[in-house]
Every structure is written in C-alpha cells, then in structure tokens.
Amino acid sequence: MISYILWDASPEILTIPEFIGFGPFPVRWYGLLFAAGFLIGQQIMIHIFRKEGKTLEDIDALTLYMVLSTVLGARIGHFLFYEPEVLFKNPLEVILPPYAGLASHGAVIGIITGLYLYSRSRQAKGQTFFWVADRMVITIALGGAFIRFGNLMNSEIVGKPTDVPWGFIFLRNTEFLKIPRHPAQLYESISCFVLTFILFAIWNKYKAATPRGLMVGVFFVWVFTLRFLYEFLKENQEAFEANYALNMGQILSIPVVLLGIYFIWQAKSPRIPQQTAVH
C-alpha cells in the first residue's frame, strides 16, 4: 500500500479587510515566520549580551543591521545568482515588492557585511566581528528553520518525486504534477532547528571563552553541506540549472563549506590566540 501526505495548507493565515480605501491585506505564514525569526533571535541575543556583560543598548542597532543586511543580501543574491539580467536592467527590483526571490547564499554575504559594519565601531566594547558572528549564527540558524517552514506553507521549493511514505503531494503547487515529492523544505527546516540547539550548547559551554570562529565554522559546514546534499532531492529553481552537473545552490555551497572547515581548524589551533580583536 502506497502512503503519502496530501499537503493543502493555505499560505495565508487571514486577510485584513479593506479600511479607508486601503487593503485588503493578506497575512501570510511566510511573512509571519520571517518576522518571528528576527524577534525570537533578538531575545536570544539579549540573553547572550546579559550573560557576557555586553551593552544591551546595542541590541536594537544589531537587530536593524541584521534585518537590512539579510533582506538586501538575499534579494541581491537572488538576482545576481539566478536572474542577473533583471538586476542589471532594473536594479530597483531589489527593493520593490512583491519580494518573490530570496537567496540564502546572498543572505550570508549580506549578513557578513552587516556584521562587519556593526562591529567595526564596537571593538572597544569587546564586540569584535567574530565575537558577534559566533553568537549571531544561533539566531541565523533559527531564522533559517522558520524561513524553510514558511517555504513549506507556500508549497514552494519542492522536492523531486519519491516513493518514501512521508512524501508530500503539494496540491497548491500548479507547476509540478500532483505526485508524491520529497518535502525538502521540511528537511532543511528540521536540520536548522537541530543546528540551533547545537550552536546554543556550544556557546553555553564556553560563553566568553568560545574559540574565535568555531561557531561560524560549524554553521557553515552544517548548513551548506546539507544544502549541497538536499539539492539532489529538490527540483531546480531555474531552467538554466538543468544544463549543469551541479545546480547553482550546490556550486555556491562548496566554497562556504571549505571556509567553514578553515574556521573550525583555526579555532582549534593552539597556535592562534582566540580572543584577539579582528580589525
């Protein structure tokens, strides 16, 4: 007997009715989960700042840097890696709605840039680039879990056909035939949730003595090794990827994994001082 899961979840939670000529406004699961990642992540960073005696007044600035750098990086990355012709013809597409494309590799580049800009004026407070980055990856992993679950609620980024008993038939996805597919979004969401707890456990063990770059390295290796593997179970996002042995997500993941391995090696090397400020 073949078993599978019929997935017919609505991407909308509710619709706010028209008011004074504005609306109606749909409230979608994806947007709510995206925002929840930042809000819960902010509370995690408040906890970390308190435990390590950092200035809580910096939390709002850090959150703002992360929101802007994540969204802009993900948007620019989507167009740069997947639709470069749109980016060069009409750069305003990056900031104009409906914000239909977000690339995780672009988000990584944006976040690294945002953390650099945030930390360069706060090194005197002990908030070096790696001090902030090693702790922020906890919240980034959690945000990734929420975002991928949002993709599931949108019935997007679906997997390839499968006969596993937990295969999903995405009834609201009209692009593919209604046959059981890997719930690749759920695989990635669960993986990011697990990583969140692993990273928090590492920080909880070391706190202020966390080896510099260790948590960033673990994050890069975990997320992008699994991303590379999960791509074999997913449909390509763009038509041009069908001509490649590896798709764009896999190609971009390889250097990030190698960088993560380097960070872990550096963090574990006794020859390198762990608490040196990064300039």
Structure, briefly:
This protein is mainly alpha-helical and 279 residues long.
Q: Which terms would index this structure?
A:
cell membrane; 8 helices; globular; mainly alpha; two-stranded antiparallel sheet; two-stranded parallel ribbon; 279 residues; Phosphatidylglycerol--prolipoprotein diacylglyceryl transferase; EC 2.5.1.145
3D structure, described in words:
The protein is mainly α and 279 residues long. It has one domain. Helices cover 56% and strands 5% of the residues. The protein is built from 8 helices and 4 strands. A two-stranded parallel sheet has the order 1-4. It has a two-stranded antiparallel ribbon with strand order 2-3. Strand 2 and strand 3 form a beta hairpin. Helix 1 packs across helix 2, helix 2 packs antiparallel against helix 4 and helix 6 runs antiparallel to helix 7. The protein is globular and about 55 Å long. The C terminus is likely disordered.
Q: What's the N-to-C terminus distance?
A: 61 Å
The total count of helices amounts to: 8
Question: Approximately how much beta-strand content do the residues carry?
Answer: 5-15%
Rounded to an integer in angstroms, the radius of gyration calculated over CA atoms is 20 Å
* E-strand count: 4
User: What summary fits the major beta sheet?
Assistant: 2 strands, parallel
Shape label: globular
Instruction: Label the structural class.
Output: mainly alpha
The low-confidence runs, each spanning 5 or more residues with pLDDT under 50, are 272-279
Helix content: 55-70%
| Major sheet strand order | 1-4
Task: List the secondary-structure elements in sequence, H or E.
Answer: EEEHHHHHEHHH
Average pLDDT score: 89
Number of domains: 1
